[in-house]
Fold these 3 entries.
Entry 1:
Amino acid sequence: MKKEGQIKVDSENLFPIIKKWLYSDKDIFLREIIANGCDAIKKYQSLCQIGEAEDDGIKPRIDIRLDKNEKTITVTDNGIGMTDEEVEKYIAQIAFSGAQEFLDKYKDQTDAEAGIIGHFGLGFYSAYMVSDNVEIETLSYKKDSSPVHWESNGSQTYEISDGSKTQKGTSIIMHISEDGKEFLDEYKLRGILRKYCHFMPYEIYFTVEGNENKSDKDDKKEKPVNNTSPLWLKAPKDCTTEEYEDFYRETFTDMNLPLFWIHLNVDYPFRLKGILYFPKQTDKLQVMPGEIKLYANQVYIADNIKEVVPEFLMLLKGVIDCPDLPLNVSRSFLQNDSEVAKISRHITKKVADKLTSVFNNERKSYESYWDDISPFIKFGCIKDEKFYDKVKNIILYKNLNGEYKTFSELPKQDNKVYYASSTDEQAQYIKMFKDNGLDAVILEHNIDTHFVSFLEFKESDTKFVRIDSEIGDALRSGEENENDKDSDKLIDIFKNALKNDKLTIKVESLKSTDTPAILTINEYERRMNDINRIYGNMFGEAGKASETLIINTNNDIIKKLDTFDSVKCELICKHIFELALISQRKLNASELESFISNDVKLMSMI
């Protein structure tokens, strides 16, 4: 039996479009062919369940054989197979979905749709992205069926003849083209199998022909290349800590153990399973990107799909398997669907619920995680105000003594919360606060620049003030200066010495007697400069934030400043300013040179 025919498509130009442009990544061809094999096995199992097929007792499997000499890749399943008529129907008529017909026929008798994405639809034609010629050898499960051979070189014609297959199922033989020769590399294929097929539901075996050094030949027992029972399929109550940690290492090749995890297990109103891990952040300033792998029925789809996984959750690592995702024909992109939004909202809710549970039941553990998970939570709050509403009462703030407080527990002075953005650069100010029995919070991460502004928007009756921005009443001694003339005189002395018209100079009587002067910086201007710097000066080169030198009249050096001769007085004023500058930030090259020069001159006068 041999006959020829023409592939039936909606237009004469559709086939080359499918061949070259349906998929964004050529690697996907192997996933599609193997996934079709899984669908074929699932169909056979479904028919056996309802008595329309007789179970042959053979364990389901998919075999992939790379033949370097013949330049072929063959994918074989032992699923439902096809008859002569079905080959013409499902292979030749590209626009027809065999899976849909199968579901329509048996939708009232089986749950087959749980595992069917589409058998020999457009996915089959992904083989032509890497092949000059593709053959199909197939034998239907139906009794008295004859094996069928189908072949096409990628033109719009095909040939059907008697096949040679003796067991039910289908083999796809891909004759790899010159453009696709990279896929004849064993390690390239192993990498694709790990990426796309590592958790597929049926065992996959990989063999290589034409490789004299193939290590698999030495193995007495063949081993599948995939894990057919990923941990996310188990009930959370049946999973151990060791299993969660092992699965994390297996999936993400990360030797740093996660802090904790969330196991998603939803059956209504949609089916969704998965595990989200909170990784330890290794960079205290930058938020390290995560990796969320998306699956549909254990078939890998893509990483970090923002339609399903909210942007801020992409700082986590994890897997999500959702059979109800409305994928398009290439399984690679989500169609617009209200269900996708529901899934995304549900994932966000589950994360918020888990965090709240840990806070309420294991607060000490939660506090130990906080420095690592706080950037993720704060980013989530900024991106999703509903998420903020869910977690605002479990956001922690570390005070100067290293204690963790909630927003309601924060130390406030006249509805102001003081904070330090660097325990090193603002060490003098922190010491002043501690010496005077005052408290502040530590907000050192880059994201805190945004988060502080966000909090002021959400909690409008509270203002956040950096510890070096202003002198609060609690730091003042309460003593009045003897007269305004003395204050004016002191200001003139410093102005003449420093010769800096942009610097504002004020006089205060501070409780701390050790500090001759401190430098404060305008909170609003500094905050805007920080944001501009984070975004690479997208608003243009920012001007310097306004600085104010606060002269402490309660300091002994300041009290006797007017007793020195003019030269020494000028050097002391410069030295006091530069000490205040060092306490506020690092000196630049010219400032450091000036500081050293003035210091040497002062020492020479001793």
Entry 2:
Amino acid sequence: MMIAATLILVMLVAVVAMGLTAGRRRPPMVDRESASTSAVGPTAHRRPPDRAVARHHQPRDVDPQLGIQLDRWVAAGLLTPLEADEIAAHERRTHPAPAGPVTAGRPPATVSTRRIPVVAEALGYIGGILGTVGLVLLVARSWDDLATPTRLGLAGAAAVSLVIAGWMVNEAADPAFARLRWTLWLAATAATGLFVGVIADRTLGLEPDERIALAVAMAVAIESAVLWWNRPRPVQHVTMLGGFALATALFVEEFAGEVTTGTTLWVLGAALTILGMRRLTTLPIITLAAGAITTVAGTLVVASGREGLGFPLVCVDAAVLVGLAVTPSAQRLPTERIVLAVVGAFGLLQGVPSAIAWFAEDAGIATGLVVWSIGVGLVAVAARRRICAAVAIEVLGSVAVIGGAAITGIQSAGVATLFGVATAVGFVMAGMFPGRVLMSLFGSAGLLVFVPWTIAHYFPGEDRAPLLILVSGALLVAIAVLLTRQGGRFRRELGGDRSSDARGVDVDAEEHPAEGLVQTR
């Protein structure tokens, strides 16, 4: 009964896919010469390009702005009339007109033909979800009682039918059909993983469970690679890279420990990162993201085996990713910077607190000095304003400087208080220079932390409470006055207008705007 229901479900999926494929019509091939002639008239080909006078705009069945631009380029001699007409014909074929009132030259059937792929995609998703849920509920009740051949038959039939259904969907016809094919093949990959898992568990008797996971990961990676096959298919691209990374880690772990496994993963991730940055794959952004994540995962695996070695490696790897994101480069796209920055920030959140807690327990002063030095370096790099997100790097460096001074208190409160007060005062003084207004803000915050701490450390007893209240109130008043005096600087420097600061001119908020201008020759 169960096998019959499964076969019926498989046949329904195949029939629906065949119906979608048979019902779809390929767009007719348009001859370039006839399309261009119908767009602008038969005399357009015989008219030579005029570089001096722009010809009058002739209506084309394309976006009006594109038609005006084509006319300008033809008038400037950048395009011939034939080339402009071919571009217009290409845009008509690849970008049909949106839904709206029917105008001259716009086919009335455009709206309905455009909605068909979206409806087919939605029906495919709904049918796939319902079929998968029904199959899972049907099999889950008696999965433990099923024989091995029955399990293999169910998983294998589902995998094969889903691969065939996805293959019958023409992804080149419409983006909706492409997404439908990717989804069907993703479900097929999951069924293949179940099929291989049954073989590894019930037939081969592999133990422990890591070996079964290795077999499943290899099967998923290989099938995804075949379905991907250097095509722009993001779902299969992700499952392929993820499967290979997991299989590599599980395979190396069979023969070596965490350090070797993590190192191998890091090497694989570094190779993928380089491939992504050089754009040597169909979807470089996915390769770059997978490589960056794999490098962080590799260092975390090393840290699980040797914390003293792994935590610094996590921090270094994450810092390199952030450095690649903020380093100026005309060849790096904004999306690539975002991916590197996000993965690097995640690595820093995982590695920095763990590394500080690990090393500060026995060497608080040394750990604090290292963090403080790193923060000073970040502030110095950000001060040059030659990197991307310089303000964010300056904030990160300032936090590291103040935090590094506080970390020394784990080993010696006396050193931390004096060192922290000196650091905060230095920040306030450095914030008086043009372009460094953020440092005064962090210096003020540091004073609010370290001055009461210093009083509490060097003046123990109940009599210190009035002194703490007095000093804290005085600090708050002083910081409030400082912020009111530098309010204009916050707006100018953080708003991106540093022209006056670059010349060393600080225009007060009450002055007339013309009084702070310096005329240069």
Entry 3:
Amino acid sequence: MQSESLKDNSKLSRSELVILIMSAAVTITFVSASSPLYPFNPWDDANCFFTLGRGIIHGYVPYRDLYEQKGPLLYFIYALAALISEKSFIGGWIVECISASLFAVFSWKTAKLFVEPSKYAISVMPLFLGITYTIKMFNFGGNAEELCFPLLTIALYFGLKAIVKGDGLPEKKEALLIGLFTGIVFWIKYTFLGFFAGFCLYILVLTIKRKSFVKLWSLVWRFVSGVIIISIPVLIYFAANKALDSLWEAYFYNNMFLYHSGVNAHGLAAIPVVKNIYIPFMSTVTLTKSYPMYGVMLVLSLISLVFTGKPNRKKAAFLFLITFAPALGVIFTRLVLIYYYGYIMAYCFCLTLIPAVKVLNYIAKASKDHSTFIKRFASAGLIITYAFTIVMCKNMYLIFKPKDYLAQFRLADTINQTPDAKILTYEVMDSGFYTAAGIMPSNRFYCYLNIQNSYTAILEEQHKLIEEGYFDYIITDYFCAADWDKYELIRTETIYCIDYTGKPFLEGFKLYKKI
């Protein structure tokens, strides 16, 4: 009976939609350094993506002309952002707002599958978004994980909706959408595909168990069609630019065989099969120690399955576990832990809204005599807590600062004294130096990448060009002990920063000029 009564609860009213989108936009505007409230997004990852995006609109082909390690679709997204504004991250901020809005909408729809919210219960959404987007692994905003996990949330919603409303299998049009999402994720960062592999396995198990082979085929061909629809334009682009070999080498081969190679495994991490459980588990434990709220949200997501209702609990738990385990397992396969990898798992945070809404409903029901006052009081409390969460965001030290607060723009003042200057960021990633100076890289390997020790082509090209005096300026890390015959140190810059753990540190750069 419960399942029947909840059939249409996930539909949203116009006011709910407005509240959710506004909550997402306000949250991103205050916490992402891409927003207009900030002078610039100084994160090196986001700037590498943005430089590639700028390159695309100037005729550069990713991997062939400018080398980076993520998927091409991420660069196409940043190319759209660059079309909006090539001198700032305004376009990136819009993309982040859209992504966060999708996450907000489908998180709320997921909660409504299992509980009918009281009038003021939606006031929990700003706080929910504030917690999700102020976990410090969010860093400055704009990474691949942040843009992709909402797609996983939507797919999870489709699966849970099928459990509540139907036979456990998604609708045909939803299979096509899941295929599209899989294609998008594959061409952004294929290590995110664990979730979709688990989802496909879930459908396979369910259809075989019920011997619904006709339904399986109808879902499979739509899913595959979705993947193909995304993949064909990508492949045509690289084929037309005679760069398929560069795509294969940079995005697939180097990432699979050269990335973080040379790290020796010990103990349980060296045992085949066992390491596939041990490494993801220990990586999650390590991240939880560094980001306690991240661990709390993961645990609450698992516990929240209890509140999905007895008719749905086992099926929902099965869907959750069969997608969660491979999602985690495919992300954490290497001994070197990159702190923001785990952020993709934020897709399942939507489940925490189920008990949260039930608690708010209970408070409203238990205070019938003063229901309006209690609802408003609880809502005000949630909003105040949300405001506190936003204020405590690690990026607040940059908000409302002028551009010349950042070393990137101070160095750009010097670089721009040389018309059409050629610059290189050596032993340091691109933290926005090219964008701040309003120029494009003039060589393929334009900055430091953490693959360069195993992919020797990067340093070989850079050292050759430095010896030839090819660059007008070279930017290095403050502690880089460089000594080049054709270059002299002309400027040093330091800036106070907050790192991805929330700790303050002093970051510095050196600027060398060709003699």
